[in-house]
Write the structure tokens for this entry.
Amino acid sequence: GGPKHAKPIRNRRRRRRRRTPRAGRRTRQDTEHHVCALRTRAVSVAGGCQPRPKVVPLWDNEMLVGLLLAAGVTSWVAFLQPNEQLVLKHLSRIETRNGPGAMMYVPFITKATKRKGTQLDDLSYIVVKNELTGLEFTVAGPQLYFLNPHEVASERKRKIVLEKHEYVRLLDATSGQQRLIKGPAKVVPDPFESIVNGRQQPAVRLSKLQYVVVTDSLTGNRRVVTGPQLFFPGTYETVGDISEAVELSKLQYVQVTETLTGAKRVVSGPTLFFPDAYETVGDISQAYEVRKHQYLKLLDQTTGTLRVERGEATVFPRAHEEAAEGGVKDAVNVDDETAVLVLSKASGQQRLITTKGLFFPEALEEIVEVRRLVRVQPHEVAIVRDNFGAFHFHSGNASGAGNGTAFFLPPHCELVTMYWSSATSKEDAEQHIVRNAKQVAYKVPMSKIDLRAQYAFFEYKVRTSDNVELLLEGTIFWQVADVPRMIERTGDPKGDVWYHARSALIQAVSAVTLEQFMASFNSIVSKAAETDVAFYEGRGVRLHGLEVVRFECVDGKTAGVLQEIIQETTNRINRLQKQKSENEVEAERLHSQIEIERQRKQLIEARTANEKLQASVEGESEGTRLAQNTMAFLNMLNVSVPDDATRLQLLKFFTEQQTLTTQTEHLSKGNASLFLTPQDMQLRLQMPSD
């Protein structure tokens, strides 16, 4: 604790310093032996690398430098930094010394080379080869690596950095083995390992609706991996393309075929279907919705068996089945108006179904035709031909009641349709359009024979005996009288009537002149219609008559002369008609005037009677008033003027004055002129005498 103890301590330090130089008395070989310790390998090597030697100096740098300076040896020393290495090539061997430190060597028998160690970061590595043994190994960072004797290093390489969703396959060229490393990782390949496919591969991301087929390349086995997951394949597995799972709704299905055996199966919805590794999936198909009034026939293509599914149902076909006869069909509603003709494929026979209700055919039955009730009006006849060729006639008035009839066509029978000549097309006839065509141009179908009288327009060219060509227009009235005879003798009764009437009319006109024809063409046409009645009766028809409504000359000059004659006749008729009309107008005018005067007379007489009556009433009223006024006036003067004559004179005076006042008022308000006589004015004129 005090100064007395400091001196022994200093003495001990001096003794230590005195002992230290004695170490320099050793030989150079002993010094070299004690300068460097045995080398140990303490290098971290990835992937089973061999340990690396490292020189660890026994003395620190200050002690070694002091020793060498004291011995006077300066040219045999190499000073190494921590990242440096000294390579010593002796006469029979090579050794390395790693820094930091000062290394001593004999320059004449040893060649010394200084080199830097290899600095490896966390993402790099090198491949080291021992040239003496030929062994190769990898050295991975992070570290400072010093090569051992006889070792050479490759260029610095980058580690394979794998993310979480990546993997890499490494192939060892010496053994042919592969290994697979999943991320996340930093991979250092062995010296003889190479990356399969040249780079790291992404893992397969599978959603809930995805899957992949994985094949083991060693065994050839396949397996299916479904999502959702991040899939890393095995070492020797290959991954196919990502496929979507088959999402099937309630009304969908798919046919699945196993490629190994060829067997098929049907997968129906609702489901999320992942096929097996050896299965192929066909297109998504819709199930058949069969309603209550519908049915579906399905044909098994392997056995040829047919089956019928009736509604109401959702039908999924079985494997190897497909819809026959066009898919879902409606059953036939058999009622009073509808029947069904059915063919049995087992027996080949036909039958007519008339039982009311929904008809569903069996598996080996085919609906040949849906037959409607054939209605025959009372004026119609329908002709049916059976399979033996015989005709059957259905008359609408067979019972005589005139109610018509109706029937269904039996099996193996058909309704006879005739084609009659017509100037109107089938389309116009169906739309009830009458174009007043006069030439036969069409053949229209007739399935029911109309027994009523019919008409047809015609336009014939005829020639008179004096060689005047005329164009006749008119109407043919005809009727079917005997249907069995008609169907036996002709297929176009209307055409026969039209052409035979033309022939008869040409013959009749050719026997008369133009003048005779113009004078009596009605009788000529009627005579032509009565010609050859047997022809019409033999075809079951009756010609009622021909009517010509217009004729004209085909030749222009003759037509002009005929027009002049017709025009003159027309003018004469028009003038007569005009004069008759004027006379009728004048007579009607006089009759109207007489009637007016008669009514005017009655008006005057009525007006006069009314005026007389009105004047009488007014006079009576005025007299009554005057009488009352007079009586009142006279009564008032009874006391003051007792004399009756005087009172009467006063009344007369006041009456005259009132009358004059009224006249004056009327004169002042009106446009009347006043004429006064000298007597009225009481004037006297005095004329001077000459």
